[in-house]
C-alpha cells in the first residue's frame, strides 16, 4: 500500500509554485460578456454586506489529503502537471489508481480534526467567513448526502462524521459566516464519467446533446445535492461553484434553474458560478493572482497560504506572514476580498506553522480593523509627494476616513519572528478626492502615534514620524465627524 502522506519538509517555508490556473478554472477560453450586476434588492444588499467582510478562509480537505495529494486531480487523465500525477510509489495502472483512490475512504479516519480549533483560529486571524469544500471533483461528499454512497458519513468510511455540519456549527459559533464550495463536475457519477467508456480528460464522456437520457440523471443529481446543502445546513452566505468547464453548451446543468432554486431556498445567498460569467456569477474569483488595478465589479482573490490548497504533508509549511498581509492590503485597496487557502492534514490536524501564521496575521489585523472591514477602494489613486512618498503606499476609504498603508519593500519575506521595519519619516503630501471633509487628524494605528497634519487647497501634508512598524503600517486620516 502506498504511504498516505509524504514526509514533512524541514524548511517551514518550502518552495511555493502556484497550482496551474487553467487546471482549476474554466478549462478553456470563455467569452466574457462583462460583469452582470444583480438587480434583486436582497442580492444587492447581500453583495454589499459580503464586500464589508473583506477576509475569508477557504478549506480543502478530502480523500486527496489522505493520499498525500494536493487535490483530486490525480483521477484526471490529462497529465498536465505534477498535481495530476499518481503517487510516486504507486505502480498500478490509471484504472487501478482510480479504484485505489476511492478505496482509501476505508482508512480515511481524520481522527485529529477539531473544527472548533479551526474556527477559533480563523476568528483570531481576523477572518469573517468560511468557504468549505463540501465536495471536490472526485465526488466524495464531506457531508451526509442521500444521493451517493461516497460520503464521509458512510459505514465504510473510517471518518464517520458529517464534516460540513460540524464545521459550519463551529464557525458560526465563532461569529463567522459559512459558504459552500461545491464541484459541478463529479468524476464518480456514471452519467458524468461512464467507466465503460474511455476517459481522456476532465470533461464528461457522456454527450449531453446526443444522449440526453444519459445526461439528465447527472443534472438531477447535482440539483438535489445542492438543495441538500441549502436546506439542511443552516444559513449559507455563498454557493461557490467550482469546475467552470461544466457549463453550457457542452455540459449544460440547467444553471439558471439551479441558481434560482438556491435563491429561493436562501434569499440572501450569493451564487458564484466561477469563470462562467453572466447572471450567476455574483462576484469574480481570480485564483492565485492579484489584479494589477482596481476592478469595476465585486471580486475575491483566492490564494493559498500553504504550498497548495490543502496540507499534503504533516506540519505543512506556510508562506511568510508578510506575504499574506501584503496580499490583504493590496486586495482591499483594489476593492476586493481576500480568501486565504489552507487545510487539515491527512489526520485532520492543523499544522503548527498554519496556526502560528494565522495567529500572527490576526495580531496585525486586530490593530488595523478600522482600516480593513467595511472599507472600499478609493475613487482614484491618491497623488503622493514628499520625502516619505517613496515605496509602496496603498489606501482604502470608509465613512469619514482615509486609510493610508505603507508596505516595506521586503514585506513578503517578513515572517512572524522578525516583522519589524520603520515607517519612512518626513513630509508626505496627499491629494485625493477621498480625503474627508472638515478638520482632520492623523494617527498611526499601531501604537497610536499622532501625526502632525496641515491642510491646503491641494490636499494635506503629513509630517510622518520614523516609528517602528510590524509588517505594514497604516496612517488613518479622519474627519471630525468620523
Parts with pLDDT < 50 across at least 5 consecutive residues: 1-24
- Rounded average pLDDT: 93
Count the E strands. 19
SSE class: alpha/beta
How many domain units? 2
Describe this structure in words.
There is one protein chain. It contains ten helices and 19 strands. By secondary structure, the chain is α/β, with parallel strands linked by helices. The protein folds into two domains: about 20-365, TIM Barrel (Alpha-Beta Barrel); about 375-480, Golgi alpha-mannosidase II (Immunoglobulin-like). The strands form four sheets. Strands 5-4-3-2-1-7-6 form a seven-stranded parallel sheet, with helices on both faces. The chain has a six-stranded antiparallel sheet with strand order 8-10-11-19-14-15, covered by helices on one side. α8 (about 255-265) links the parallel β4 (about 240) and β5. α7 runs parallel beside α8 (about 255-265). It is globular. Mean pLDDT is about 95; it is low at about 1-25.
